[in-house]
Design a protein that fits this description.
By secondary structure, the protein is of the alpha/beta class. This is DNA-binding response regulator.
């Protein structure tokens, strides 16, 4: 476990790297530290070391990039503990995984991860995901949505509604439906605001209403509900 230059809340996004491969951490550090709005504040080689790292940083961590398969304590268990101990929603966990091989990504989302990306994501996708998660958005790798839908469909809120004769989707305004389509496509709040010519704060309000109306715990569930309802891909 190695520490880094700690930053203040007004400074760059504080990122912690958790991966058992030194070269992987080194590559991420070079990319992230080259950004003016980000700083790597520490590294850990497994989940147990990650918990100690986060607890030791005086100014905290905004985003943890978390591998899943690691010795001592895997990323799922570490995510669960970090989320349970978090204050003011920090740190938020972004899981990086080779999805086709990794059986634990679903458990990581249930444990409270703010989203996940494939490890072969382009650098700009990774950087955008870190910024989105730091803002409070959730990120889902678009290429993995189909598998997520297959895995979670049976446990999602039914779009036909829990109450007889009630259809939550029918209660959505046209604007809320437009926002839901964008969320289903993996867009961040900033991207939705740009595409729909809205203020980002207004987008956040719409997302909050969608969570309430569709009885979803988080943005990941919104994505899956939208796909099950056939709203995805309607750009």
């Amino acid at each position: 476990m190695t520490g880094g230059t700690d930053t203040t809340g007004a400074g760059p996004i504080r990122v912690a790297l958790v991966d058992d491969q030194h070269l992987v951490r080194g590559g991420f550090r070079m990319l992230i530290d080259a950004q003016p709005d980000m700083a790597v504040v520490g590294e850990a080689e497994d989940g147990r070391a990650a918990l100690h790292l986060v607890a030791s940083l005086r100014h905290g961590v905004d985003v943890v990039l978390m591998d899943v398969r690691m010795p001592r304590l895997d990323g799922v268990a570490a995510t669960r503990e970090l989320v349970a101990a978090s204050r003011d929603g920090r740190p938020r966990v972004l899981v990086l995984t080779t999805f086709d091989l990794d059986e634990y990504v679903h458990a990581a989302l249930r444990a409270g991860a703010s989203g996940f990306l494939l490890k072969d994501a382009r650098p700009e996708e990774l950087l955008g995901a870190i910024r989105a998660v730091a803002r409070g958005d959730a990120v889902v790798a678009p290429s993995a949505t189909r598998r997520l839908l297959d895995a979670f469909a049976g446990r999602l809120p039914d779009p036909s509604g829990a109450d007889a004769g009630r259809d939550p989707l029918a209660e959505l305004t046209d604007r809320e439906r437009e926002v839901l389509v964008e969320v289903a496509g993996g867009a961040t709040n900033a991207e939705i605001a740009d595409r729909l010519s809205m203020a980002e704060g207004t987008v956040k309000t719409h997302v909050g209403r969608l969570l309430a109306k569709l009885q979803c715990r988080d943005r990941v569930a919104l994505v899956l509900v939208a796909h099950r309802a056939g709203l995805a891909g309607r750009h």
